[in-house]
Protein backbone atom coordinates (compact mmCIF):
# COMPACT_ATOMS: atom_id res chain seq x y z
CA UNK A 1 0.00 0.00 0.00
CA UNK A 2 1.34 3.41 -0.99
CA UNK A 3 -0.29 6.72 -0.06
CA UNK A 4 0.59 10.40 0.04
CA UNK A 5 -1.03 13.20 2.00
CA UNK A 6 0.18 16.81 1.71
CA UNK A 7 0.80 18.34 5.12
CA UNK A 8 0.89 21.94 6.37
CA UNK A 9 3.54 24.12 4.73
CA UNK A 10 4.17 26.11 7.92
CA UNK A 11 5.80 25.16 11.24
CA UNK A 12 3.71 23.62 14.01
CA UNK A 13 4.43 23.96 17.72
CA UNK A 14 3.72 21.87 20.82
CA UNK A 15 4.25 23.41 24.27
CA UNK A 16 6.38 26.10 22.66
CA UNK A 17 8.68 23.63 20.88
CA UNK A 18 8.81 23.65 17.10
CA UNK A 19 8.07 20.41 15.30
CA UNK A 20 11.04 19.75 13.03
CA UNK A 21 9.73 16.86 10.92
CA UNK A 22 6.64 14.75 10.28
CA UNK A 23 6.96 11.07 9.37
CA UNK A 24 3.83 9.18 8.27
CA UNK A 25 3.13 5.70 9.67
CA UNK A 26 0.45 3.81 7.74
CA UNK A 27 -1.14 0.93 9.70
CA UNK A 28 -0.89 -2.53 8.17
CA UNK A 29 -4.14 -4.19 7.14
CA UNK A 30 -4.63 -7.91 7.57
CA UNK A 31 -2.45 -9.82 5.14
CA UNK A 32 -0.51 -6.67 4.19
CA UNK A 33 3.29 -6.87 4.29
CA UNK A 34 4.34 -3.27 3.60
CA UNK A 35 2.93 0.24 3.64
CA UNK A 36 4.71 3.34 2.36
CA UNK A 37 3.56 6.81 3.34
CA UNK A 38 4.66 10.17 1.91
CA UNK A 39 3.83 13.55 3.34
CA UNK A 40 5.04 17.13 3.16
CA UNK A 41 5.59 19.51 6.06
CA UNK A 42 7.02 23.02 6.26
CA UNK A 43 8.84 22.81 2.93
CA UNK A 44 10.13 19.26 3.36
CA UNK A 45 9.20 15.82 2.05
CA UNK A 46 9.11 12.88 4.47
CA UNK A 47 8.39 9.19 4.04
CA UNK A 48 7.62 6.34 6.41
CA UNK A 49 7.90 2.57 5.93
CA UNK A 50 5.86 0.16 8.03
CA UNK A 51 6.35 -3.54 7.46
CA UNK A 52 5.67 -6.96 8.86
CA UNK A 53 9.19 -8.13 9.68
CA UNK A 54 8.22 -11.77 9.31
CA UNK A 55 6.96 -11.10 5.79
CA UNK A 56 9.62 -8.49 4.89
CA UNK A 57 12.80 -9.02 6.93
CA UNK A 58 14.76 -6.73 4.58
CA UNK A 59 12.76 -3.55 5.26
CA UNK A 60 15.91 -1.78 6.48
CA UNK A 61 17.53 -2.53 3.14
CA UNK A 62 14.61 -0.88 1.32
CA UNK A 63 14.88 2.20 3.52
CA UNK A 64 18.61 2.37 2.83
CA UNK A 65 17.99 2.15 -0.93
CA UNK A 66 15.56 5.07 -0.75
CA UNK A 67 17.96 7.21 1.27
CA UNK A 68 20.85 6.45 -1.08
CA UNK A 69 18.75 7.29 -4.14
CA UNK A 70 17.53 10.56 -2.64
CA UNK A 71 21.11 11.48 -1.81
CA UNK A 72 22.28 10.84 -5.37
CA UNK A 73 19.38 12.82 -6.84
CA UNK A 74 20.03 15.75 -4.51
CA UNK A 75 23.73 15.81 -5.35
CA UNK A 76 23.13 15.56 -9.10
CA UNK A 77 20.55 18.36 -9.13
CA UNK A 78 22.64 20.65 -6.96
CA UNK A 79 25.83 20.03 -8.95
CA UNK A 80 24.12 20.73 -12.27
CA UNK A 81 22.48 23.89 -10.93
CA UNK A 82 25.65 25.41 -9.46
CA UNK A 83 27.75 24.55 -12.52
CA UNK A 84 25.01 25.93 -14.79
CA UNK A 85 24.91 29.23 -12.89
CA UNK A 86 28.71 29.43 -12.88
CA UNK A 87 28.80 28.64 -16.61
CA UNK A 88 26.23 31.35 -17.39
CA UNK A 89 28.19 33.87 -15.35
CA UNK A 90 31.45 32.93 -17.06
CA UNK A 91 29.96 33.09 -20.53
CA UNK A 92 28.44 36.51 -19.87
CA UNK A 93 31.75 37.68 -18.42
CA UNK A 94 34.03 36.34 -21.15
CA UNK A 95 31.96 36.42 -24.33
CA UNK A 96 29.24 39.03 -23.82
CA UNK A 97 30.70 41.74 -21.63
CA UNK A 98 34.44 41.45 -22.05
CA UNK A 99 36.00 44.56 -20.58
CA UNK A 100 33.03 46.84 -21.03
CA UNK A 101 32.20 49.64 -18.61
CA UNK A 102 29.90 49.19 -15.64
CA UNK A 103 27.03 51.19 -17.18
CA UNK A 104 27.09 49.05 -20.33
CA UNK A 105 27.23 45.87 -18.22
CA UNK A 106 24.08 46.88 -16.34
CA UNK A 107 22.08 47.28 -19.53
CA UNK A 108 23.31 44.06 -21.15
CA UNK A 109 22.70 41.91 -18.07
CA UNK A 110 19.26 43.43 -17.63
CA UNK A 111 18.26 42.57 -21.21
CA UNK A 112 19.58 39.02 -20.86
CA UNK A 113 17.71 38.62 -17.57
CA UNK A 114 14.43 39.76 -19.11
CA UNK A 115 14.64 37.14 -21.86
CA UNK A 116 15.82 34.28 -19.65
CA UNK A 117 13.36 34.99 -16.84
CA UNK A 118 10.46 35.15 -19.29
CA UNK A 119 11.42 31.74 -20.65
CA UNK A 120 12.86 29.88 -17.63
CA UNK A 121 11.58 31.60 -14.48
CA UNK A 122 12.72 33.90 -11.72
CA UNK A 123 15.96 31.99 -11.12
CA UNK A 124 17.32 34.09 -13.99
CA UNK A 125 16.39 37.48 -12.64
CA UNK A 126 18.66 40.47 -13.10
CA UNK A 127 19.80 40.18 -9.49
CA UNK A 128 20.65 36.50 -9.77
CA UNK A 129 22.44 36.97 -13.09
CA UNK A 130 24.72 39.50 -11.43
CA UNK A 131 25.36 36.91 -8.72
CA UNK A 132 26.31 34.36 -11.38
CA UNK A 133 28.60 36.94 -12.95
CA UNK A 134 30.19 37.75 -9.58
CA UNK A 135 30.66 34.05 -8.81
CA UNK A 136 32.45 33.48 -12.13
CA UNK A 137 34.63 36.55 -11.62
CA UNK A 138 35.67 35.50 -8.12
CA UNK A 139 36.18 31.85 -9.05
CA UNK A 140 37.09 31.67 -12.77
CA UNK A 141 38.69 28.21 -12.52
CA UNK A 142 36.27 25.31 -13.03
CA UNK A 143 38.63 22.97 -11.18
CA UNK A 144 37.97 24.96 -8.00
CA UNK A 145 34.24 25.32 -8.56
CA UNK A 146 33.48 21.75 -9.62
CA UNK A 147 34.31 20.00 -6.30
CA UNK A 148 32.27 22.58 -4.36
CA UNK A 149 29.25 22.32 -6.63
CA UNK A 150 28.10 19.04 -5.09
CA UNK A 151 28.56 20.31 -1.55
CA UNK A 152 27.26 23.89 -1.49
CA UNK A 153 23.76 25.03 -2.39
CA UNK A 154 23.40 28.14 -4.51
CA UNK A 155 21.67 29.80 -1.56
CA UNK A 156 24.81 29.36 0.54
CA UNK A 157 27.04 30.55 -2.28
CA UNK A 158 24.93 33.71 -2.62
CA UNK A 159 25.33 34.27 1.11
CA UNK A 160 29.11 33.94 0.79
CA UNK A 161 29.33 36.31 -2.18
CA UNK A 162 28.54 39.18 0.20
CA UNK A 163 31.90 38.60 1.92
CA UNK A 164 34.47 40.95 0.40
CA UNK A 165 37.70 39.43 1.74
CA UNK A 166 38.88 36.46 -0.35
CA UNK A 167 40.59 34.53 2.51
CA UNK A 168 37.54 34.98 4.72
CA UNK A 169 35.17 33.90 1.95
CA UNK A 170 37.32 30.85 1.13
CA UNK A 171 37.37 29.88 4.80
CA UNK A 172 33.59 29.92 5.13
CA UNK A 173 33.10 28.25 1.75
CA UNK A 174 35.40 25.35 2.66
CA UNK A 175 34.00 24.94 6.16
CA UNK A 176 30.42 25.18 4.92
CA UNK A 177 31.07 22.43 2.37
CA UNK A 178 32.88 20.21 4.86
CA UNK A 179 30.42 20.61 7.71
CA UNK A 180 27.24 20.74 5.55
CA UNK A 181 26.02 24.00 7.11
CA UNK A 182 22.55 25.26 6.32
CA UNK A 183 22.09 28.91 5.38
CA UNK A 184 20.99 29.68 8.94
CA UNK A 185 24.05 27.97 10.43
CA UNK A 186 26.37 29.68 7.95
CA UNK A 187 24.93 33.08 8.80
CA UNK A 188 25.28 32.35 12.52
CA UNK A 189 28.95 31.41 12.03
CA UNK A 190 29.61 34.60 10.09
CA UNK A 191 27.74 36.76 12.61
CA UNK A 192 29.62 35.00 15.41
CA UNK A 193 32.92 35.96 13.70
CA UNK A 194 34.20 32.40 13.49
CA UNK A 195 36.85 33.40 10.95
CA UNK A 196 38.19 36.24 13.08
CA UNK A 197 38.25 34.05 16.17
CA UNK A 198 40.04 31.30 14.24
CA UNK A 199 42.64 33.76 12.97
CA UNK A 200 43.17 34.90 16.55
CA UNK A 201 43.72 31.30 17.63
CA UNK A 202 45.98 30.16 14.79
CA UNK A 203 47.90 33.41 14.56
CA UNK A 204 47.48 34.33 10.89
CA UNK A 205 45.19 34.08 7.89
CA UNK A 206 47.92 32.37 5.85
CA UNK A 207 48.10 29.56 8.40
CA UNK A 208 44.35 29.06 8.07
CA UNK A 209 44.74 28.83 4.29
CA UNK A 210 47.35 26.11 4.76
CA UNK A 211 44.96 24.15 6.97
CA UNK A 212 42.12 24.59 4.48
CA UNK A 213 44.36 23.29 1.71
CA UNK A 214 44.76 19.99 3.52
CA UNK A 215 41.15 19.71 4.63
CA UNK A 216 39.38 16.85 2.88
CA UNK A 217 36.15 18.20 1.47
CA UNK A 218 34.36 14.94 0.63
CA UNK A 219 30.76 15.54 1.74
CA UNK A 220 27.68 15.91 -0.42
CA UNK A 221 24.61 18.10 -0.30
CA UNK A 222 21.84 16.37 1.66
CA UNK A 223 18.37 15.98 0.12
CA UNK A 224 16.89 18.00 2.97
CA UNK A 225 18.98 21.00 1.94
CA UNK A 226 18.80 20.56 -1.81
CA UNK A 227 15.03 20.14 -1.97
CA UNK A 228 14.46 23.22 0.22
CA UNK A 229 16.68 25.51 -1.82
CA UNK A 230 14.40 27.91 -3.74
CA UNK A 231 16.85 28.00 -6.67
CA UNK A 232 16.67 24.20 -7.01
CA UNK A 233 12.87 24.36 -6.96
CA UNK A 234 12.84 27.01 -9.66
CA UNK A 235 15.37 25.00 -11.68
CA UNK A 236 13.01 21.99 -11.53
CA UNK A 237 10.02 24.15 -12.49
CA UNK A 238 8.34 23.81 -9.07
CA UNK A 239 6.40 26.52 -7.25
CA UNK A 240 8.16 27.05 -3.87
CA UNK A 241 4.73 27.53 -2.26
CA UNK A 242 3.44 24.18 -3.54
CA UNK A 243 6.63 22.29 -4.34
CA UNK A 244 6.25 19.52 -1.83
CA UNK A 245 2.87 18.50 -3.20
CA UNK A 246 4.36 18.45 -6.67
CA UNK A 247 7.36 16.40 -5.58
CA UNK A 248 5.19 13.96 -3.62
Short synopsis of the structure:
With 248 residues, the protein is mainly α. It has helices at residues 59-97, 102-120, 126-138, 142-149, 154-161, 166-179, 183-191, 194-202, 205-214, 223-226, 230-235, 243-247, and strands at residues 2-6, 13-14, 17-18, 34-41, 44-51.
Describe, in plain words, how this protein is organized in 3D:
A hairpin with a 2-residue loop joins strand 2 (13-14) and strand 3 (17-18). This protein folds into 3 domains: 2-56, no CATH class; 58-149, no CATH class; 151-217. It has a 3-stranded mixed sheet with strand order 1-4-5. A two-stranded antiparallel ribbon has the order 2-3. 58% of the residues lie in helices and 10% in strands. The chain has 248 residues and is mostly helical. Helix 1 packs antiparallel against helix 4 (142-149). It is globular.
Amino acid sequence: MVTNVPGPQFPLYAAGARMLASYPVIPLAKGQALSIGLTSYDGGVYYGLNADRDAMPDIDVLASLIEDARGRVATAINTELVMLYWGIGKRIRDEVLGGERARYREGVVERIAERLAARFGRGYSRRNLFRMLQFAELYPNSRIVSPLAAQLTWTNIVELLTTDEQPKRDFYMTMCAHEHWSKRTLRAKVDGKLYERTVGTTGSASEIQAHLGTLSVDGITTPALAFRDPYVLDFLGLDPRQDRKSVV
